[in-house]
Design a protein that fits this description.
By secondary structure, the chain is mainly alpha-helical. It has 3 domains: about 170 residues, no CATH class; about 130 residues, no CATH class; about 60 residues, no CATH class. It has 20 helices and 8 strands. It has a two-stranded parallel sheet with strand order 1-2. The protein has a two-stranded parallel sheet with strand order 3-4. The longest helix has 21 residues.
Length: about 400
Amino acid sequence: MHKTGSSSIQNALYGYDDGEVEYLKLRRPNHSLELVSAIMPDIENYAQIKKRKLSSQQLAEYKRISERDFFDALDNASGKDVIISSEYFSQPGAQARNNLEKLKAVLDKYFDKIRIIAYVRAPKNFMESALQERVKGGDTQITMRSLYPFYRGRLEKFYELFGSDSVDLIDYDPSSFPNGSVVSDFSKRLGLTLGRKASVRSNEKLGFEALSFLYSYNSFRGFANPACRFVNYSSEFISGLRSLSDSPFSISPRVVEEIFDLNSEDVKWTEQATSQSYNTSGSSGYLVEKLSDLVEHARSNKEFYEKLRSVESFEENFPRNDLFENFLRSGSKEEGFSLRLSESSLNSLKNPTERPQAVFREISKSLYESGLLAQSKAVLDLSLKSFPGAKGLQEMNEVVSSAMDDLGWE
């Protein structure tokens, strides 16, 4: 599953071959992209491929190469036990299940026995880790409910396709692993000799302060461009943020309990499958009751923002940070984000003799200065239909359009 040290396992095992056991020799430590591309008939519907926007010819060539590499790797591993690692197949939904069934049909031709090993993270810990990863990934549309892992949809298909005797679900509890390392635990279970690689760790956490600003900037981009699903941060920038703070956070046990209640049947199924009992208690560091708490924290933490601005490539990763700062100032903990009217704009709107086009200009300007670009552009588009020759509206439209271009508006 995701959020169980899978990247650490993959990076540690990449290139492993002791003559008897081999980590399948594909191009990347994470086998997901190449496996799915090799077995999925309509790879244009695979999210990791779709975002590349390949032509029909490029898709066909990519699939051909993926199939060749996969089957060559299997042929070259003849006579060995082979380890394959992919989080993709633990996703819920029909697509992952159908592709897992196709993968099994291929592997059955090569192997006498297939064993599934899946680490399962407790729901509350999973949700906290998922929030961290989705914020780092630039997700602009996170909700608390969407952080719940829905275990049955992820794991039941392995029982159905491979049989219960072939599936090992392991509680992801680093405190119980040798040296606190999931890599050490995995290698011990399979009798692998990894040496120093057993201590490899990936996807290290961000401190809560950095997390709050990333979430706030994601929210800003989502408000500026409602079509924006993800903000793209460079890996170097994310790495730079890790050195700024290491403050932990917890999702409120009360919130987790509410989400458990909504998914009680799934929790019950998972507890039976893993022989674990999950609870909602336990918290350390900053307590998050709702996602707007992260924005509220960012709004009140000017000192940390100055540290953030000093990180290399800040400007490239936070384009139009001037508007982002306005957006933070316009935020309200209880009501979300609101229009921040300047005194001159307010006076203009109060003036009964002011021309309509000037009123529209002041409204659009105030929306823009509050970081609400999409709303500002909507006002301008509407008002320019009625007053196409209004110079003030035209100038404001150029300013807003330029900012949208800087933020990647399509």
